[in-house]
From TrEMBL:
PANTHER family in the cross-refs: ATP-BINDING CASSETTE SUB-FAMILY B MEMBER 10, MITOCHONDRIAL, ATP-DEPENDENT PERMEASE MDL1, MITOCHONDRIAL
Listed transmembrane segments: 55-76, 155-173, 233-257, 277-300
Official protein name in the record: ABC transporter ATP-binding protein
Subcellular location: Cell membrane
Ranges of residues in domain ABC transporter: 335-570
Superkingdom of source: Bacteria
Keyword Transmembrane: yes
Chief localisation class: membrane
Record organism: Fructobacillus parabroussonetiae
GO molecular function, one term: ATP binding
ABC transmembrane type-1 domain boundaries: 16-297
Length: 579
């Protein structure tokens, strides 16, 4: 609720207009039966001038009601759309600042739902609240008071009708129970299924999984439909039950009036407004039911958005801490990692255990190890995309925690195992490395990454558009452009996680030569499956099940490390010894 108030604050003037308009609408609705009673009395007494006068008043009141209704709806929709847009923008901004850990702990599909469906629910909640917040209690209480004031002897009919409606709706709402939370959960799953299926469309088709995919999507959709239907049934049940109760109340009122009409004939003129008030009470209760429905869904969504905002703010503050750095003076002595351990969120076992190593500035560290030994995880920790669970990392003697994360990311280039490029031009992607890079600098990075041939083959060169999920690029092209993007940054520390695996041996060798020559001052961490890729590294780490089991040069490890010997032997003849 605090979140809603914060975002509603800038709209306070429009909120006041909206609320006042609907209050005026409620007042005009409540006043109408009074004129109706006067008209009925005048009809009974055959006073045509009074009939005409009250008829005009009634018409004027109806116009006031219509004008107030339109104004209220106009401002309520302006406020609800404005608030929703502001929350959406703020939530998106904050998700952008999320750490990798945070994104993964929510899952991307879940975050998409929180940004779309949940925001829509909140928008509807604001709209309904503004339309009904004062109107419903005013109509409800006003109609009760005026009904009893009109026909005091029938007070019990009013109260009995309300009691029966409240009791039956309470029962129906308790039956709706946790359905709203369940709906959000199912929408999350629905999104995950659709996203995974579309992202992995090639695998789905090549393994003929369309049937299975359809089946699991249908299961989820059916469950969602079933829950929605149950809510719909219960909600729709409310209306006939309410109608039944109100008709019973009207019948009771008519019955009691008919017995006393001879003694008090003026009651005949009062029965019409009385029945109108009973209907207004019913309407108010129905609106209350609707508000509760929207409120239940809206508050579930608000809570989900709130949890994103709250958690992320705390971590952001931590990230923002630290000293700004001078990039030119960054990593001039060396990098030192001490007793570093890391456990993934929700995992039981650490994937990296007690790692310690040192790397002098400008040197190259090679990392090899079996599948799942923790190489990529170490790369992500060095790039500060994850925070270590234990241990320290220092640069030139300074704890990296004291360096602003954004500065760190500016000085460190990482090329990930699975290259990710964004839809848009090649140039736009490269400029992520340095928005101010000159055309010469972009061309040099493209050349260094051995991407020049295929980029130049496009008639529009760097302006060539990369399509969604880089579907129009081959694996090797994606790797080359990802490498070029990191090189545009002119990083002080370059981390390559199996970044040249899709390159042919000749291109890979050229990349190594360029890195050696043009990036000689850059400290490099190169993770590779192929020993040939790191054979000349100053130092090589051998990882096994998250531990360092060997450190040294290629020759040292060949002499001392059985695991390294094993890897080398398995690659011999496949290019490992092509040097
Ligand atoms: N996001 C994640 N959440 C939980 N566990 C993870 C996550 N990413 C990786 N792991 C686990 O951490 C371990 C190390 O994974 P990592 O990707 O670092 O290995 P790797 O040495 O790079 O493997 P490969 O050579 O196959 O790329 C694996 O057991 C993997 O299952």
């Amino acid at each position: 609720m605090g979140l809603l108030l914060t975002y509603a604050k800038p709209y306070w003037k429009k909120i006041i207009v909206a609320v006042l308009s609907v209050t005026l609408l409620a007042a005009s609705t409540l006043a109408q039966p009074q004129f109706l009673e006067k008209m009925m009395t005048a009809i009974i007494q055959d006073q045509s001038d009074v009939i005409l006068k009250n008829g005009v008043f009634l018409l004027a009141l109806a116009f006031v009601g219509i004008a107030a209704g339109i104004t209220g709806t106009y401002y309520a929709s302006q406020v609800s759309q404005g608030v929703a847009a502001d929350i959406r923008r703020a939530e998106y901004e904050k998700i952008q600042a999320f750490s990798l850990q945070q994104v993964q702990s929510y899952s991307s599909a879940n975050l998409v739902v929180r940004l779309t469906n949940d925001i829509n629910q909140v928008q509807q909640l604001v709209m309904q609240m503004l339309q009904m917040v004062l109107r419903v209690p005013m109509m409800f209480l006003g109609a009760i008071i005026l009904a009893i004031w009109t026909l005091p002897s029938l007070w019990w009919v009013v109260l009995l009708m309300i009691a029966l409606i409240v009791l039956s709706s309470k029962r129906i709402f308790s039956m709706m129970g946790g359905y709203f939370g369940k709906i959000q959960q199912l929408i999350d799953q629905n999104n995950t299924l659709a996203q995974e299926n579309l992202a992995g469309v090639r695998v789905v088709k090549s393994f003929n999984q369309q049937g299975q995919e359809e089946a699991s999507f249908a299961d989820n959709t059916n469950e969602l439909t079933a829950v929605n239907r149950r809510i719909g049934y219960l909600f729709n049940l409310m209306f006939p039950i309410f109608m039944l109760i109100s008709y019973a109340a009207i019948a009771a009122a008519l019955l009691f009036i008919s017995t006393s009409i001879k003694e008090a004939p003026d009651q005949l003129a009062k029965i019409t407004p009385f029945i109108t008030y009973l209907n207004q009470i019913l309407m108010a209760l129905l609106m209350l039911g609707m508000i509760s429905t929207f409120a239940s869904r809206g508050f579930v969504s608000l809570k989900r958005i709130g949890s994103v905002m709250a958690e992320e703010t705390a971590r952001l503050d931590k990230e923002a801490a630290g000293q700004p750095i001078d990039k030119a003076a960054f990593l001039t002595k060396g990098l030192r990692v001490e007793k570093l351990s890391f456990t993934y969120p929700k995992a039981k076992e650490p994937v990296l255990k007690d790692l310690s190593f040192e790397l002098a500035a400008g040197q190259t560290l090679g990392i090899v190890g079996s599948t799942g030994s923790g190489k990529s995880t170490l790369a992500l920790l060095l790039a500060r995309l994850y925070q270590p669970t234990a241990g320290t990392m220092t640069i030139d003697g300074e704890d990296v925690q004291n360096i602003q994360a954004s500065d760190w990311h500016q000085a460190v280039g990482i090329v990930m195992q699975k290259p990710v490029l964004f839809s848009g031009s090649i140039e736009k992607n490269l400029r992520m490395g340095n928005p101010d890079a000159s055309q010469e600098e972009l061309a040099a990075a493209v050349r260094a990454a051995q991407a020049e041939d295929f980029v130049q083959a496009y008639p529009d060169g760097l302006a060539h558009e990369i399509s969604e999920r880089s579907a129009n690029l081959s694996g090797g092209q994606k790797q080359r452009l990802s490498l070029a993007r990191a090189l545009v940054k002119k990083p002080r520390l370059l981390i390559l996680d199996d970044a040249t695996s899709a390159l042919d041996a000749r291109s890979e060798k050229r990349v190594q030569e360029v890195l050696e020559k043009d990036f000689s001052k850059t400290t490099k961490v190169i993770i590779a499956e192929k020993i040939a890729s790191i054979i000349h590294a100053n130092q090589i780490l051998v990882l096994d099940e998250g531990r360092i089991v060997g450190v040294g040069s290629h020759q040292d490890l060949l002499d001392q490390s059985p695991i390294y010997q094993e890897i080398y032997a398995s690659q011999k003849g496949k290019g490992a010894d092509h040097e």
